[in-house]
Fold:
Amino acid sequence: MAELAELVGVLKAAGEGTRLRLLALLAGGDHSVKDLTEILDQSQPRVSRHLKLLADAGLVQRNAEGAWAYYGLAQDGEAGAVAQWLVGRVDHTDPERVRDCERQAEVRAAQQAQAAHYFAKVAGSWDLLKTLHVPEDSVESAVLGGFQGGPVELLLDLGTGTGRMLQLLADRYKRGIGVDSSREMLSVARARLGSAGVTHAQVRLGDMAELDPALGPADAIVIHQVLHYFDDPGRMLMGARELLKPGGQMVIVDFAPHELEFLRTEHAHRRLGLSQAQMSGWAASAGLQVQTVREFPSDNGDRGLTVCLWRLCA
Structure:
């Protein structure tokens, strides 16, 4: 239970028209200050001041990305519970709220257009990689099957890219956080999650080689097509293990060993696949056990890639 003075401070922070509008908007997904100034049609200093008051009271979370910062509705703590309660009682037929939602949709549409432009530039590389391995539907079905039981409290998607895993697993977690080192990819992920209505997931800029301990502890972690970009996947896996709760589960998807050298020279792959023996050794060093392994061979012969899925437990 919150102390009386703390609760009064939270209510004072939320008890203003613009700040309540901000809470309702952030319940629909993360936004930058620039996004919110466009939606509310207010000045940047004014919006920033309101956001600071909300953040200081614990009603919203601020995640810095270089010179920018993204804000999202708080998910934890007494203040987070108050924020959720308040948003749940906002009248969504109120004319001002309707206008905010319309402007929010326009901002999301602009972000989607930027995402489409980005993918148009990298489509060649992505399309080539897709032709080299089994269709994604088969792998995604296996990823879904790798998570048993009811929704977990917190899922981390390390190297989230476009946010596809957060979208795919949306009904398997109560709160999701995606981490990536590419601002461009995070823009794509935010646009896609927003369009898909996935409001209980956030994405953050982060160094995959030096993961922030504050991200955990997580009940489940996904590392999808990430480890082959590291010279030392075992070190990255050990860092991920530090974020996992005792008894937590980890699902890793990556390529089996192959000889397609051009993926290293032209597409920044550092490792030409990961073997079962390597994964078992890295897992053991990190205090993890390999529970199941599945392989998905390509039908492209010598130029094909086999995709592997490992399910690990702490």
About this structure: The mean pLDDT is 85. The two ends are 32 Å apart (CA to CA).
